[in-house]
Please model this.
Amino acid sequence: MLAGRGSPEWSGPLTGSYPAAALLVVFSLIPYLLLSLAVLPLSRTIAASLGMSRSVMDITIASSTGAYTAGTVLAVQFAVHLRARRMLVVYEVLFVIASVLAASATTADVFIGAFIAQGLCTSLMLIAAVPPLVTSWPAEKMPVTAAIMDLCIFGAVAAGPTLGAFQQAEHAWRPLFWAVAVLSALALVFSLLTFEDDPAQDTSAPWDFIALTLTIAGSGLAFWGAGQLQSSMRANAESLVPLITGFTLLVVLVIHQYFTRRPLMPVRALASSIPVTGIYIALTASASSIGIMELVLQMLEQKTKPIEAGLYFLPEFGAALVIAVVFGSLFRSRYTPLLALAGLAAIAASAALLLTEVPAVGWTDGVVAGILGLGVGASVSPALFMAGFSLQSKSLQRVFAMIELMRGVTAFLVAPVLAFLAATLGASQVIGLRDAIWICLIIALAGLIGGAGLYLSGRPRLIAPDIERWQGEDDQPAWPSPPLLAAIRKGRK
Model:
């Protein structure tokens, strides 16, 4: 589908402009993704300003990321039955309202509701805005789109700790939240300028209320439990029961989507070697990298001043900028799977280097942050496209929703659990911190070794994606994906 095919009377003045469409994605995604980690060093300041306890603030942060995770599935369900661009405008309006309320909140209740709404709206906007930027423009725009996505999703996350620490140094938090409100307003403006009234995907499809219930209940319980675990630092029924129950419901959701006849997310279609490899890499890279970032923040909070902690994370953002350019340059080559595996190797290297530093703080922390930034940017975005290119382009929205759901669960559930382990494992906090970093290293190495094994088990050819065919009328995958474990099955015959 090419840009500008909407009904003329519903088209915005910049409907056919690729830069405007790209800016819509940038302004929609960066604000909350930046806040998701910037809020960690700011949590004490925000809690004190609004009269919240630290435990309530921890649960609020966890609930907001849980809402972000759940929103991916809701967005796909809405896109099936409702006009996507009209819904995007609605999401943008709600995000502006939530951002203004969060920035101006004078009570804890208002801030809690607004911050959770920001997480939900961002995932709704991601699923509504990003896939059209990938599929609705000529193939020569795709490398630029890939670099923009890499920078938006992971560059913003990388910049979060630095901006949060700088704000913490000034004992302020509202300026950052007001900046987010301004960006959200720009996103709304571009959603109107680029508006085209595309029809709903399939109004005859059933509403999958089972999937929606499992998503909302699973995310809500799991992230509530993770927040309780991190805030109380006690593995009791109040934290473990909702955490385990919620995670189990999300596993049941994936199983349900695999077996149901008309799924919201193409789990069965993704069950071949290349997409399974991509998903596995994305999950392990996200879990290990976000875990490392939160542990480093925890360490720096105890050892340094906020401004110094912010400076330590600057190399991560610089590395994210570099790797976004590299990914765009290699996007149409055959090296995307190798780049994803190299990213996991970099994450493992950052964890190993960090182990040599703990408990001291020195110049190697900046090196760790830089290597980590290279690793995250090089692994997760390429892994997303490995999965997306293995199916038809019309499935991209559903593929992104599936992966972002699973990635959100692994990334934002693992980090609170690691923070709990760092505080409770071993005879001292330093030993607990080292043990938690070891877990991150093991996750990254498991992703690297397991990802390479899964990819090679199918014996796929290392070829460049045929983006023109993927975008064409026949709607074919950009590359063939052999059956999972095809090489092993062949050897048994």
